[in-house]
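1st attempt posting a full record on here, be nice pls
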Amino acid sequence: MAKTLEFIVSGAKPLRHGTDYVWSLILELTRDGDTFLYRDLAGMCDQKRLSRVRVDLRNLVAAGYLARLPEERPKGTRPYRLLKRQAETPNLRVDGGGESTFGRGIEHMWNAMRRAHNGFTTADLAIDASTDEVSVSHQHAKAYCLLLERAGLLKRLSSSRGGVGRTVYVLLGSANTGPKPPRRYKSTFVYDENKGRVIGAPTAEEIAP
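the predicted structure (as tokens):
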């Protein structure tokens, strides 16, 4: 029979790979200038994931965030130049096709919730979070609201605005911690039932609501 376990997570940190981590290193390496070397970046990353680091660099070049300087230099010493400096990690397509809209819908919904002090419906949210570049469906808005409600971040108000699916939600003040949205993650780990503990370091990756 399958078992269901509940865990209390006291903290989490990004692993030494992934676009977020690579971008944070690029910002650090270019703090006093606008160029850096691949070998310096790679030395700070998970050595088993360097192929992914190279993909991230190619995608950043293709999207115009980095440039590979053309000077003739020995292997490993040809620098990259940072062209667009920003605190937020660029949201890029994995195929190198430039900017991606993946995850933008959640960002837009979250910040629409933060502005809606008098509450909102899922229909309101889908409309307010949609732009010319990002389309948020009513189903997506409903799924995200249910996710945040289960997590204790949203509250259903007793009043409603008539019609099916017109429940009014409000974001709790204590949940409004900043502009970055809460996201859903799934975790993979090994659990020792004899000792009642997780073996090794569990990891998690983002999935859709």
